[in-house]
Design brief:
The complex is a heterodimer of chains A (about 120) and B (about 270). Chain A has four helices and five strands, in the order ββαβαβαβα. Chain A is an alpha/beta fold and about 120 residues long. The N and C termini of chain A lie far apart (about 35 Å). The radius of gyration of chain A is 13 Å and the shape is globular. Chain B is of the alpha/beta class and about 270 residues long. Chain B folds into two domains: about 1-140, Globin-like (Orthogonal Bundle), CATH 1.10.490; about 145-255, 2-Layer Sandwich (Transcription Regulator spoIIAA), CATH 3.30.750. The model of chain B has no long low-confidence stretch (mean pLDDT about 85). The chains are: A alpha/beta (about 120), B alpha/beta (about 270). The interface between A and B is medium-sized, with 21 and 20 residues.
Chain lengths: ~120, ~270
């Protein structure tokens, strides 16, 4: 089950970068939420960047999980930035009434990291 | 059945005379100097012969439909085309006047049907034209442009209905993701009316842009519209606003931490 998960979480300089690949089903989303909470607590990360650039389809459940997991991460002391939401996904979320107004966003992972004070020098 | 066959034969026998009489009458009625293309008349006449010659003529109307579409495509006016059918009725009634009443009725019904088909063809063509122009307008009226590295601007001109609102949203979001811009300026100087629905569309667009990681600045709200919006209870509290495009652009440059200075020795 773990191998088939389309999500990877890596740590970069005290910050977690979670990359969500492809389609995200409900079970995977819930597992992601608990995995991420564990990792944030375990690493005491100060920030989390969730890269959604490969996600093409979302539904209201996924939208709600995103809102929940950033609230959870915030409680654990991490600032959450969602990066790379595709135009079509953004339109779907807004049409569903999920504007995720409590969550910070960034164009891509690099800018998300920059927002957290981590600069990647080219 | 016999009646119908005899009518076909009569039409066939009279073809050349009827055609020349028809073209003459039509030219007289239109008061035109140049003679019309006789081929159009032949096409319609021959289509009539085919249709009259079959019992189930409802199924044989493809030839007349093709004729109708061709007339529309060639740009003939509905009046001219209708007169063509009218003069044919006159010519045929004159020629078949001594014949069976049933024949005249059959011809009349058929020509009425031809008129309906022509009418339909004109309306369909007009509808298609309107649909195509609406599409064109939609594309033309939603140009998102890049103003600066990391800054895009979307001037909205005209009323923002639901159809356009979606086109505007898609155009803006695609440009944001294409150019990797962190700031989007939405200029509503050209929007004549902002009601709750339009405001809702704007709020949605701005929320969607924020989700993709871009910050929006709304500008160009006219004083009258601002008053209406406040009266309607639309205050757009969490949205950055600026008086006009210039102010919004300068705000955007500030946000990016960029400073623009005049070149030394500049004359203007």
């Amino acid at each position: 089950m773990i191998e088939s998960s389309p999500i990877s979480i890596v740590e970069i300089g005290g910050t977690l970068v979670a990359t969500v690949g492809g389609s995200l089903d409900d079970a995977a989303a819930l597992r992601f939420q608990s995995d991420l909470a564990e990792r944030v607590a375990g690493t005491q990360a100060g920030g989390v960047v969730i890269d959604l650039s490969a996600v093409e389809i979302v539904d209201s459940f996924i939208g709600r999980v995103l809102a929940d997991l950033s609230a959870v991460a915030r409680l654990l002391g991490a600032r959450v930035i969602v990066a790379g939401i595709q135009p079509a996904v953004a339109i779907t979320l807004v049409e569903l009434g999920l504007t995720l107004s409590g969550i910070e966003t960034a164009l891509d992972t690099e800018q998300g990291l920059a927002r957290l004070g981590i600069r990647i020098d080219g | 059945m016999n009646e119908i066959r005899s009518l076909t034969e009569t039409l066939r026998a009279e073809r050349d005379d009827a055609l020349s009489a028809w073209v003459r009458l039509f030219s007289d009625e239109m008061g035109r100097e140049d003679s019309p293309d006789p081929e159009d008349f032949e096409v319609l006449y021959d289509a009539l012969i085919t249709v009259v010659g079959t019992e189930r003529w409802e199924e044989q109307l493809a030839a007349i439909e093709a004729f109708a579409r061709a007339r529309v495509a060639q740009g003939f006016s509905p009046d001219e085309t209708a007169r063509m059918v009218g003069t044919l009725r006159t010519v045929l009634f004159e020629r078949l006047g001594g014949g069976e009443v049933g024949d005249l009725l059959a011809i009349s019904r058929l020509l009425d049907r031809v008129l309906r088909i022509l009418f339909e063809a004109y309306v369909v063509a007009r509808d298609e034209l309107i649909a195509r122009q609406r599409e064109d307008l939609l594309e033309v009226s939603t140009p998102t442009m890049q103003l600066w590295d990391g800054i895009v601007a979307l001037p909205i001109v005209g009323t923002l209905d639901s159809r356009r609102a979606i086109a505007v949203m898609e155009s803006l979001l695609n440009k944001i993701s294409e150019t990797g811009s962190g700031i989007a300026i939405i200029d509503v100087t050209g929007v004549p009316v902002v009601d709750t629905l339009v405001a809702q569309h704007l709020i949605k667009t701005i929320a969607a842009a924020r989700l993709t990681g871009a910050r929006c600045i709304l500008c160009g709200i006219r004083p009258q519209i601002a008053q209406t919006m406040v009266e309607l209870g639309i205050e757009l509290r969490d949205i950055s606003t600026a008086a006009n495009l210039a102010a919004a652009f300068s705000m955007a440059l500030d946000l990016r931490g960029e400073i623009v200075t005049a070149h030394e020795g500049s004359t203007s």
